[in-house]
Amino acid sequence: MIIIRITLGIIFMSVTALITGSLKAYNWMRKDRDGKGGTIINISSIVALYQSPLMPVYSATKSAVLQFSNCLGKTEIFSRTDVRVITICFGVTDTNLIRGRVECIDKELEEKLLVALQKFPTQSIDSAVQGLLTAFESGTSGSTWLITTNKPAEDITKNVDKAYEILRQGVF
Ligand SMILES: NC(=O)C1=CN([C@@H]2O[C@H](COP(=O)(O)OP(=O)(O)OC[C@H]3O[C@@H](n4cnc5c(N)ncnc54)[C@H](O)[C@@H]3O)[C@@H](O)[C@H]2O)C=CC1
Ligand SMILES: CCCCCC(=O)CC\C=C/C=C/C=C/[C@@H](O)[C@@H](O)CCCC(=O)O
Question: Membrane-spanning regions, if any (predicted)?
Fold first, then answer.
């Protein structure tokens, strides 16, 4: 089925390749294994910051990117390895990704997504890159940055921490 192929593709690209690539770089750079330290910047999305029915697969992959990168960048690890891990949540950005046809799990969702993508303000590539550079210059390890709607990059680490404080209630 086409959707299985697309789904496996997006999971492979956004999760499997990102995690294996990050860990390769991580092990190469980590100071406690004779590396020189360094920075990993992983790209998530605004879809990791809210729950929408439009793209359950894509949203799941971007949430995985956020959680993996936040956890890998935690101080307990960073203090030993000097490998800083930063996560970027981009809003809709004017690239080929949103220009091409976006296949969803059914036609109804695809139509809703097209409307959403047209309605949601699209930021320029320049603004997205400027925001990424700000995060690179200022971001601490394990931080999350919201870069959307041509606004300056915003460090939303505290929001993510608060969200997980709520989610962990009753767990321990
Ligand atoms: N454009 C947007 O609105 C947003 C994009 N993002 C994320 O930003 C990242 C980049 O997306 P865009 O630049 O917008 O997409 P894009 O489609 O414009 O660019 C993707 C690039 O990756 C290359 N590529 C595809 N498969 C590859 C592979 N197997 N190996 C090496 N290169 C490959 C393509 O040739 C293309 O140049 C993605 O992770 C996307 O999910 C996140 C939020 C919003
Ligand atoms: C209003 C939504 C804002 C989204 C901001 C972004 O991250 C841009 C995403 C733009 C396109 C995403 C394409 C994703 C494609 C695949 O996931 C999809 O074709 C696979 C199956 C559907 C699914 O992801 O559930």
Answer: 6-26
